[in-house]
Amino acid sequence: MSAIRVVLCDDHRIVTDGLRTLLEGAVGVECVGVASNGMEAIYLLEHIKVDVLLTDLDMPEMNGYELTSKVKERFPAVPVLVLSMHDEPAVVKRAMDVGADGYLVKSAGRDEVVLAIREVRMGHKHFGSGVMEAFMRSQVGGATNSELLKDLSEREIEVLGALAEGLGNKDIGERLFISPRTVDTHRTNLMRKLDTHNVAGLVRIAIKAGLVR
Questions:
Q1: Which of 39, 82, 184, 204 has an alpha carbon 20 to 30 Å from 116's alpha carbon atom?
Q2: pTM of the predicted model as reported, rounded to 2 decimal places
Q3: 3-class secondary structure for the chain?
């Protein structure tokens, strides 16, 4: 059986160098290209045979969310495996919503990364142990968390999480592919629904609900 051909996408050279070295020692897996952002990854997919794309989320030019969406649209046979520093359930859910086939946190070891690559190549979904631990943490007091957010739409929860990360309207709009004005509308609706009068209040609620730590 031929080796699984993997393209790595991360804007930090030390990360891609480390991953390339990690994969060199794995049986049946081969790194065939490295990209520093989504646009470079798309270029590689257009020009070489790729079996799995392993990508970060936070990158310049084209982030991992947009990249995943475009890969699913243009190269549906290529599984996308996210490797990110973020383990927040809302972030993982968003990645899966745009088409990611698996999700690992950057604390994952070599065996887990290789296993995930093989799993998504076979058409399975794969969530790393770090992701599952984060989901379990978010379930502590789960009834209370659900109650806090029960009246919010999925988009409002995404905006709430982004506000709690300290992002402004423009950055949130770019992340969610909506206009800054639409972000402002969501923020106003969040304050009304959650009965708070400022962003600090929204952040406190987001933390209590487990959207951020």
A1: 39
A2: 0.66
A3: CCCEEEEEECCCHHHHHHHHHHHHCCCCEEEEEEECCHHHHHHHHHHCCCCEEEECCCCCCCCHHHHHHHHHHHCCCCCEEEEECCCCHHHHHHHHHCCCCEEEECCCCHHHHHHHHHHHHCCCCEECHHHHHHHHHHCCCHHHHHHHHCCCCHHHHHHHHHHHCCCCHHHHHHHHCCCHHHHHHHHHHHHHHCCCCCHHHHHHHHHHCCCCC
